[in-house]
């Protein structure tokens, strides 16, 4: 069905003014008198001018060819552009020889040539290059060569091919759009896809008790901090590390000089929070360009200045690592202890700090035996200032071994970056997880690919009404796929009783809740929910195999710490017996050694267990180890499955071995 059947011809005007009027109504304090006057002038524009300026804003710019502005509802694009120019709403760039041209030198200086080149075709640019006797090379090289030409001469040649127009107030309108959606991922096209029912958003109450930005100064500083972050990332992409270091250094100093002005889940809209992320990137640049001692100084300064909780765990891990690289074992041990005592450090970072402290204690012990650790500080650390090895591992989960099995896949090839790619029987490239799951099924077992998506999908569906319940300030716009506090401590504390009740309900009636919510909300957009990845039957089978108590406990961990816990889940959930059977563990011959299972009989650890899939040299990451600890504490089994290619060693490499959960 065409768009016309679903929406009115003026749909794009309705969407534009919905965004504009909503923002003016709730955030008028962020605009000055001249900006508010502009908004009123837009409302009063004649129909052709209004249609064209909204059309241009909705397109990716900033420059547009006037000769290509053809819309059925706009009779004469050139006349309309001229009218908008007279009103000061657009800037029109014309060739020097044009009778309409005014002040060509001034106009050419305003033109951003790098952006303007994107408005011309490759054929047109090659024609320009021949006039300057340049080699008409591929587009990337051609653009670089053209930008070395005198800007005035290049602009004149481009404008002779076709006039350009840009919206004068585009940055202001982009600010309005940002304030409406509160993110840079969405734009007015979100409204179009919603009206066409291509994307459906949940129903919830927009409940605003305070503005996100208290005043214009806070908003402008937030935008400035965002521009710094973007400039650093672009510099890194372009491998201009000197520029990246300068931009990051300015953000680092600005962060140290600032004071927190927002708290809770709205702190992400504070300039200080944005600069904290930029400063963390600067610290990683310092590691590679300035050495571990300078990097440790940067991390220490960030931690002392009150780094936001989102970044504190990672900063403590890197701080300890750089102190160790700089040879300060005492400081590194102390940094590990401080990190483990910091409540902002999440489970994954705790695992990293525990592993590092374990290695540091071993290094200090060797130094003492060699007579190199005479300092009092080292002796104190060894004698009890830091708990003995393994002391804190039990507090987070038992350091029991993880069983490891091996799958040998005979068909494989090397992909980009020498990554091992596997193929199925039909010659199609498949994921390593698919290879492992096929091997388990060939051994008479069954299972489903889980990783993180399976449980974030279950979490979104089973906790749907809680996610989208009425909580002040977490829903600021009608097109959100999650509350603003998801992934922060505020999420759980604001819904504590509702979450506890749902966790208890899932222990006994989880399948009923799943069917009800799946049917009611199917297809709606929600953070973490992958409707197309799993059918209702697959989700129900996984829940039934695990049991209500286990599912409830796993989702409770997600509710308490979604930001950290949505990573690191094992790749597969495997069970013995086919669908609907009660865990049959027979058919040992089908699970005996062979092309897939190595040279020993495979015996399931239980009727249902998790599997983390790895290649030969992959290691368990800290978030994966954190989940293994958690699942083990819940009484659930986990094993590691190694998938080997034909080049990965001899038979003895395929024998199951044990790896430590604790490090």
Describe the SSE topology.
Elements: H1 3-6, H2 11-27, H3 33-43, H4 47-58, E1 64-65, H5 77-86, E2 90-93, H6 104-110, H7 113-116, H8 122-131, H9 139-146, H10 151-161, E3 164-167, H11 170-181, H12 189-195, H13 216-237, H14 241-257, H15 271-289, H16 292-304, H17 309-325, H18 329-341, H19 347-369, H20 376-385, H21 393-396, E4 401-408, E5 412-414, E6 420-423, E7 429-430, H22 432-442, E8 445-449, H23 453-462, H24 464-467, H25 489-494, H26 496-521, H27 536-546, H28 548-560, H29 562-565, E9 572-576, E10 608-614, H30 622-633, E11 637-644, E12 658-660
Parallel strand pairs: 4-11, 10-11
Antiparallel strand pairs: 1-3, 2-3, 4-12, 5-6, 6-7, 8-9, 9-10
Helix pairs in contact: 2-11, 4-5, 8-9, 13-14, 13-15, 14-15, 15-16, 16-17, 17-18, 17-19, 18-19, 19-30, 23-28, 26-27, 26-28
- What's the count of strands? 12
Tally the helices: what do you get? 30
- Structural class given helices, strands, pairing? alpha+beta
What is the general shape?
globular
N- to C-terminal separation?
57 Å
- Low-confidence parts: 1-6, 101-106, 373-400, 579-605, 649-663
Rounded mean pLDDT is: 83
- Largest β sheet strand count, sense and barrel closure: 6 strands, mixed
Name the strands of the widest sheet in spatial order: 8-9-10-11-4-12
Helix content: 40-55%
Q: Indicate the radius of gyration in whole angstroms.
A: 30 Å
Name the beta content range: 5-15%
């Amino acid at each position: 069905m065409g768009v016309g059947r679903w929406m009115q011809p003026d749909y794009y005007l309705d969407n534009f003014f919905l965004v504009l009027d909503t923002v003016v109504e709730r955030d008028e304090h962020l605009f000055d008198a001249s900006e508010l006057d502009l908004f009123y002038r837009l409302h009063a524009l004649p129909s052709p001018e209004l249609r064209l300026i909204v059309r241009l804003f909705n397109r990716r710019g900033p420059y547009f060819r006037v000769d290509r502005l053809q819309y059925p509802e706009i009779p004469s694009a050139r006349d309309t552009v001229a009218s908008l120019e007279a009103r000061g709403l657009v800037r029109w760039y014309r060739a020097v020889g044009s009778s309409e041209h005014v002040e060509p030198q001034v106009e050419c200086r305003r033109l951003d040539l790098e952006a303007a080149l994107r408005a011309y075709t490759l054929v047109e640019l090659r024609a320009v290059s021949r006039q300057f006797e340049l080699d008409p090379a591929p587009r990337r090289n051609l653009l670089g060569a053209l930008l070395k030409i005198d800007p005035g001469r290049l602009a004149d040649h481009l404008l002779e091919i076709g006039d350009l127009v840009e919206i004068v107030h585009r940055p202001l309108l982009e600010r309005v759009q940002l304030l409406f959606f509160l993110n840079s991922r969405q734009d007015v096209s979100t409204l179009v896809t919603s009206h066409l029912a291509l994307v459906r958003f949940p129903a919830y109450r927009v409940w605003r008790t305070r503005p996100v930005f208290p005043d214009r100064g806070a908003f402008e500083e937030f935008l400035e901090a965002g521009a710094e972050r973007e400039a650093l990332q672009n510099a890194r992409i372009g491998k201009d590390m000197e520029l990246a270091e300068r931009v990051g250094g300015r953000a680092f100093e600005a962060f140290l000089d600032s004071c927190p002005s927002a708290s809770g889940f709205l702190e992400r809209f504070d300039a200080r929070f944005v600069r904290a992320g930029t400063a963390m990137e600067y610290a990683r640049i310092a590691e590679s360009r300035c050495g571990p001692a300078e990097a440790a100084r940067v991390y220490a300064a960030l931690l002392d200045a009150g780094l936001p909780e989102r970044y504190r765990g990672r900063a403590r891990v890197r701080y300890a690592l750089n102190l160790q690289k700089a040879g300060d074992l005492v400081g590194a041990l102390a940094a590990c202890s401080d990190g483990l005592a910091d409540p902002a450090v999440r489970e994954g970072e705790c695992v990293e700090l525990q592993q590092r402290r374990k290695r540091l204690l071993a290094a200090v012990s060797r130094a003492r035996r060699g007579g190199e650790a005479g300092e009092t500080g080292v002796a104190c650390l060894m004698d009890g200032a830091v708990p003995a090895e393994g002391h804190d591992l039990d507090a987070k989960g038992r350091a029991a071994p993880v069983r490891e099995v091996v799958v040998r896949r005979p068909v494989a090839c090397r992909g980009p970056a020498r990554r091992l790619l596997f193929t199925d029987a039909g010659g199609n490239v498949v994921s390593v997880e698919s290879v492992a799951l096929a091997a388990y099924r060939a051994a008479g077992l069954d299972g489903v690919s889980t990783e993180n998506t399976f449980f974030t999908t279950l979490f979104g569906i089973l906790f749907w009404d809680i996610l989208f319940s009425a909580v002040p300030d977490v829903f600021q716009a009608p097109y959100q796929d999650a509350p603003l506090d998801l992934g922060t401590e505020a999420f759980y504390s604001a819904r504590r009783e509702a979450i506890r009740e749902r966790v208890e309900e899932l222990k006994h009636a989880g399948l009923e809740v799943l069917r009800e919510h799946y049917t009611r909300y199917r297809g709606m957009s929600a953070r973490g929910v992958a409707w197309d990845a799993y059918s209702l039957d697959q989700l129900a089978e996984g829940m039934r195999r695990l049991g209500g108590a286990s599912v409830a406990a796993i989702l409770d961990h997600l509710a308490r710490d979604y930001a950290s816990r949505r990573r690191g889940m094992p790749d597969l959930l495997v069970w013995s017996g086919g669908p609907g059977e009660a865990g049959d563990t027979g058919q040992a011959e089908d699970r005996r050694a062979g092309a897939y299972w190595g040279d020993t009989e495979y015996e399931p650890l239980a009727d249902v267990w998790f599997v983390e899939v790895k290649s030969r040299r992959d290691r368990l990451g800290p978030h994966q180890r954190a989940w293994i600890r958690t699942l083990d504490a819940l009484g659930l089994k986990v094993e590691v499955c190694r998938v080997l290619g034909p080049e990965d060693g001899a038979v003895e490499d395929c024998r199951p071995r044990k790896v430590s959960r604790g490090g």
